[in-house]
TrEMBL record:
Top-level taxon of origin: Eukaryota
Keywords: Heme, Iron, Metal-binding, Monooxygenase, Oxidoreductase
Alphabetical list of InterPro entries matching this protein: Cyt_P450 (IPR001128), Cyt_P450_CS (IPR017972), Cyt_P450_E_grp-I (IPR002401), Cyt_P450_sf (IPR036396), Cytochrome_P450_Monoox (IPR050196)
GO molecular function: heme binding; iron ion binding; monooxygenase activity; oxidoreductase activity, acting on paired donors, with incorporation or reduction of molecular oxygen
UniProt cross-references to Gene3D superfamilies, sorted A to Z: Cytochrome P450
Keyword Oxidoreductase: yes
Full protein name: Cytochrome P450 4F22-like
Length: 383
């Protein structure tokens, strides 16, 4: 399963080339092909040190053989902002009223775009499968990538029935939405936090250089990802300070008695603030400070189990969390091996919580290519 997803995601091609040849003044255009090239980089703008920062990047995330990824991403972004706007307007909680408003109509259109897109992909694959037949289809996949849609097309439910196209499209939608925007946000914020803290950035780089001492960076392996303790602490602290998903909701299936004696009645929908928990000074002293050492094994020993929950908790928590951590570690490692990441001080960052935690005007970072020997020159500390 993991391999299948992993193969869907490729790091941007400028990351997989020697840094000495690379001076990206902006993130390059989407390469053609049936893969997801970069898990949604609408938040982050990158540039050479010295050159003017690149304009806010176009989004690159696409699903499978997406030819117009921007439509899909634009629709996802729109949905994510419309949902939050609706939450703040009580009267618009009624579907009847909502769909009469311009926002409601935009919501419908964006939903249609997203659903049509996935449905088309699933339908095309289904037709190809029916055309070839199961055996020939499986044979044609031997030695090749079997992706998520393939797995679902071949899956059976508990009664031995194929999944319907609608079921498959619904699963694909969930994974696309939960999988790309969240990781893009997580990655963007960790690069931002390390740009704000060059001392931590440098320590991560040293750790990664040590790990990759005898191999090319393209050879980073699954096992290597568990040998990056400090970088992992930096990612976790970033997920605490800037959790990509700021809240989750649950409907009470029974009365729930709170520690102070009050009762949440059955049927109520509760909003659980991940952001609030991660910034609660009773749990996290000086919560606004980015301090990866909070996640030192020694320091986290006494952490309450739900103090840190970027991936939520309980039976419906994030099923992609290991994959997401792996993605972030790989991209972080390959980026820090090649570039010193600095802040563009002229563009202040203001958080913008939508369904995903974004920044109002993007996160603007300078990338300074490091020499072939990977001799790093960290950017100047923040004043
Ligand atoms: C930094 C990256 C990510 C973060 C912060 C994140 C966070 C979350 C959160 C908070 C939930 C909500 C669970 C709830 O309602 O309690 C969730 C659900 C989910 N996530 Fe992630 N996620 C990330 C990456 C991914 C990736 C990469 C995938 C897939 C490859 C994924 C797949 C899912 C799915 C399928 C669900 C729905 C689970 C269910 O309803 O049972 N997520 N995620």
């Amino acid at each position: 399963m993991l391999n299948a997803f992993w193969s869907c995601v490729t790091v941007p091609h400028w990351l997989s080339h020697s840094s000495s040849q690379r001076h990206p003044s902006s993130v390059p255009a989407l390469p053609a092909g049936p893969e997801i090239p970069w898990p949604g980089d609408h938040m982050i703008a990158l540039s050479d040190q010295g050159a003017p920062p690149a304009p806010a990047c176009q989004s690159h995330a696409g699903l499978l053989c997406c030819r117009t990824p921007s439509d899909y991403i634009a629709a996802i972004l729109e949905l994510s902002s419309l949902v939050v706007r609706r939450q703040h307007r009580l009267l618009l909680h009624w579907d009847f009223l909502y769909y009469l408003t311009p926002d409601g109509q935009r919501f419908r259109r964006a939903c249609d775009t997203v659903h049509r897109f996935t449905a088309d992909v699933v339908q095309q694959r289904h037709q190809a499968l029916s055309h070839l037949g199961r055996e020939a289809w499986l044979k044609s996949k031997q030695g090749k990538t079997v992706d998520f849609i393939d797995i679902l097309l071949l899956a059976k439910d508990e009664d031995g029935q194929d999944l319907s196209d609608e079921d498959i499209a619904a699963e694909a939608d969930t994974f696309m939405f939960e999988g790309h925007d969240t990781t893009a946000s997580g990655l963007s914020w960790v690069l931002y936090n390390l740009a704000c803290h060059p001392e931590y950035q440098e320590r991560c780089r040293e750790e990664i250089k040590d790990l990759m001492r005898d191999k090319e960076s393209e050879e980073i392996e699954w096992e290597d990802l568990s040998q990056m303790p400090f970088s992992t602490m930096c990612i976790k602290e970033s997920l605490r300070l800037h959790p990509p998903v700021t809240a989750v909701s649950r409907r009470c299936t029974e009365d729930i008695k709170m520690p102070d004696g009050r009762v949440l009645p059955k049927g109520n929908v509760c909003l659980i603030s991940i952001y609030g928990t991660h910034h609660n000074p009773a749990v996290w002293p000086e919560p606004q400070v980015y301090n990866p050492h909070r996640f030192d094994p020694e320091n986290s020993k006494n952490q309450p189990p739900l103090a840190f929950m970027p991936f939520s908790a309980g039976p419906r928590n994030c099923i992609g969390q290991n994959f997401a951590m792996a993605e972030m570690k790989v991209v972080l490692a390959l980026t820090l091996l090649r570039f010193a990441v600095g802040l563009d001080e002229s563009r202040p960052v203001r958080r913008k919580p939508e369904l995903i935690l974004r920044s109002e005007n993007g996160l603007w970072l300078h990338l300074e290519p490091l020499g072939p020997s990977h001799e790093s020159r960290p950017p100047a500390p923040r004043s």
